[in-house]
Specification:
heterodimer, A: mainly alpha, 10 helices, B: MetI-like fold, globular
């Protein structure tokens, strides 16, 4: 039976290796500097993903600026004050929200931002990503803060520090590295999201720095290139995927080494 | 000092409470806004929306049944394939492999979950679909071709490909939860079984039995993910609103019809129909996830496994 279960594990790893190998081989052959800074052009004239990289970076940045403080705040609440019905409700809803398909978040943001503004925008995309990020950050933050020993809190309280100072100056710094790795993983997660951007941020063929306009993103660009009819588009999809997956794997592996001592 | 301390304390706690409350607010707002925006089709079609099998946006006829069918069938395919493999991996990692091997393998399986959905879609179109068209499909038709499931034209794009790609994507999630659930089964149970003369495999069976509700939770969680899987499925399932017995035929899921059509839906009723399907998907995944959480909590109260759910 050990043979059989080991085969299952080997099978999963083989699939991972096959996927990564395809991305590496097909991606590398299509990548060059021009591709990284150009904007999309009509088929046959080259073109690139510069504006998509910028759009993804801007939206991820804004999403992090909105989602991270709220997520961390909610997580601190859950760990420090959350053992009541309110905390349990928040915890339960966070967990279920994490499992809700991200495209649903896109629809929600469409109804509250895109419909009233009557156009798609980078802000709507970033807000979708922020909503996806908040429950993930909240739960990892809570978990990290709960790992801080009670004795540290008691020590600070015994020295006369008020509760908020204990949390802000003692507990949160102690949990900071854990919170940071959780935040990094959630950024990796949202930078790979496509579905919630399809009809909130839409797409753009140009460099766009303004959040009230439709914005291109790496993931939506991959989707468009992959489903396009031309071989040259497919090559560009693989090249863009190499950039995206490279970034996401890099974050995951860094986090893995930073948290190694826990395993 | 004490007074300012109390004021600052309540201010601090107040701010944190607002942040935490945001999550409740978002969930309520999601339900309200999606319900509100799907009122036109709810009024127009009522429950008939869910059982109607005609989908013709051009003539304002909306029935969601083909999408509900596609969502359920593709998810079932995914679970049939993913559950045994996930169980195998988890058992290997927790019960059999030495820690030095288990840890890197576990990490690699987790990496499968870190790859974005759109990347699976890309890989599905150019690697998995041709594989199914040229190898797996003919193989199934040769041996099981008498089943209506495996009849029809092989294009590589269809229900089966959607289910297979979903299976790959939910495997790391089911594995992670089963692994955590197995890890909280007390070592003393294993020792007791071994002491009574059980073989290593019999001991594992006892452990599995004791963790059964948690394992069920992991499967239900996987179901939740499969039901909502969007990009990869949209790219390989063929996107045709039809109900066909053959797994090789193109199909459509709720999530993929949203991904493929939402941006172009400008007509009021069309938009409402799509949002209503989104609402249905939201409520279903919400209930499924809640059920998974309850099941896992039963085995692993307050542990890592409970958090995953």
């Amino acid at each position: 039976m050990t043979m059989l279960t080991a085969l299952c594990a080997i099978f999963a790893i083989t699939i991972l290796v096959i996927i990564l190998a395809y991305i590496a081989v097909r991606g590398v052959s299509a990548i060059n500097i021009e591709f990284l800074i150009d904007t999309p052009k009509p088929v046959g004239e080259g073109g690139g993903i510069g504006n998509a990289i910028l759009g993804s970076a801007l939206m991820t940045l804004l999403a992090t600026a909105i989602g991270l403080p709220i997520g961390i705040g909610a997580g601190v609440y859950l760990a420090e004050f959350g053992d009541n019905w309110f905390g349990n409700t928040v915890r339960f809803l966070s967990d279920t929200l994490i499992g809700v398909p991200s495209i649903i978040v896109g629809i929600f943001v469409y109804t509250i931002v895109v419909l009233p503004m009557s156009r798609q925008s980078g802000f709507a995309g970033a807000l979708s990503l922020a909503i996806i990020m908040i429950p993930i950050v909240a739960r990892t933050t809570e978990e990290m803060i709960r790992l801080v020993p009670k004795s540290m809190r008691e020590g600070a309280l015994a020295l006369g520090a008020p509760q908020w100072r204990v949390t802000w100056n003692i507990v949160m710094p102690a949990a900071a590295s854990g919170i940071a790795t959780g935040a990094m993983l959630s950024i990796a997660r949202i930078s790979g999201e496509t579905a919630p951007l399809l009809f909130t941020a839409l797409n753009s063929r140009f460099y766009n720095y303004f959040f009230d306009q439709p914005m291109a993103s790496l993931t939506v660009q991959i989707y468009n290139y992959a489903t396009g009819p031309f071989e040259i588009e497919h090559q560009m999809a693989w090249a863009a995927t190499l950039i995206l997956v490279g970034l996401i794997l890099f974050i995951n592996i860094v986090v893995r080494f930073l948290t190694k001592k826990k395993y | 000092m004490a007074k300012t301390g109390t004021f600052a304390d309540s201010l601090f706690k107040g701010i944190l409470t607002v942040f935490a409350g945001t999550i409740i607010l978002v969930v309520i707002a999601m339900i309200v806004m999606m319900f509100w925006n799907s009122l036109p089709t709810i009024k127009e079609f009522g429950l008939g929306f869910l059982i109607g099998s005609d989908w013709q946006p051009a003539s304002d006829v909306y029935g969601a049944l083909p999408f509900i069918y596609g969502t359920i069938v593709s998810s079932v395919i995914a679970l049939i394939l993913a559950v045994p493999v996930s169980l195998g991996i988890a058992i290997f990692l927790v019960e059999q492999a030495p820690r030095s091997i288990a840890s890197p393998i576990a990490f690699m399986v987790e990496l499968l979950a870190a790859i974005p959905s759109v990347v699976y879609g890309l890989w599905g179109i150019f690697v998995l679909a041709p594989f199914i068209r040229n190898y797996l499909g003919p193989f199934l038709q040769d041996y099981l071709g008498w089943l209506p499931l495996f009849q029809g034209r092989l294009t590589g794009i269809g229900m089966l490909t959607g289910g297979v790609i979903m299976a790959i994507m939910v495997t790391p999630i089911i594995t992670a939860v089963v692994r955590d659930v197995l890890e909280v089964v007390p070592t003393s149970q294993r020792d007791a079984a071994l002491a009574l003369g059980a073989t290593k495999w019999e001991t594992t069976l006892i452990v599995l039995e004791n963790a059964s509700s948690g394992i069920a939770g992991a499967v239900v969680l996987g179901l939740g993910r499969a039901l909502g899987e969007t990009m990869a499925v949209t790219m390989v399932i063929g996107n045709a609103p039809q109900i066909s017995a053959s797994l090789f035929e193109p199909a459509y899921t709720i999530a993929s019809v949203l991904a493929a059509n939402f941006a172009e839906a400008t007509d009021r009723l069309y938009l409402s129909a799509l949002i209503e399907m989104g609402l249905v998907l939201f409520l279903v995944t919400f209930v499924v996830n809640a059920a998974a959480k309850v099941l896992v909590m039963g085995v692993a109260k307050g542990t890592n496994a409970a958090r995953q759910a």
